[in-house]
Amino acid sequence: MDMTSQQALPVSQAIAWEALNDIAMLQAAIPGCESITPTEPDHYDVAITAAIGPVKAKFKGKLRIEDKQAPSGYGIHFEGQGGAAGHGKGHATVTLEPTGAHQTMLHYTAHATVGGKIAQLGSRLVDMAAQKMAADFFANFNAALEAKYPPPATTEVAAPAQAPASGGGLFGGLLAWLKRLFGG
């Protein structure tokens, strides 16, 4: 299975980098993620419950971050076992491209292989499940980013209020009319 895509993030590149290295934020955003536990620097044990077609299983795996180039990107190697459901392993590359003061484009490519019952489901079903999981992740991740890092308030410059020609609203207008009427 191969996936390549991009996703707009509503934050600067530095904040996107920080968020992609925030274990709690990632765990909350990954669908079915039960835990991400650091075992050593840039190495993690991961537990995820996932459904791929009719096969639902709890996967336990290992994830390793490599080739960190802060704040531009990194590589990820992963492998997981889901018991009778099967297994998977692969790698991904994530790059962050600033596209504005508060906008970053995340580009990713992933390659994975699966075995066991999952592989018997067929690549089309596995690809659809992976695409749905990625879409759900980015929806959750962007919502978390917007909650934690709200966009800066836009300051609109209000046009100065025009004073009525007569000055002072209704009362001022009435006075001006009376002055004109009585020549005062």
From TrEMBL:
It comes from the Bacteria. CDD domains: CoxG. InterPro entries: CO_DH_gsu, START-like_dom_sf. This is Carbon monoxide dehydrogenase subunit G.
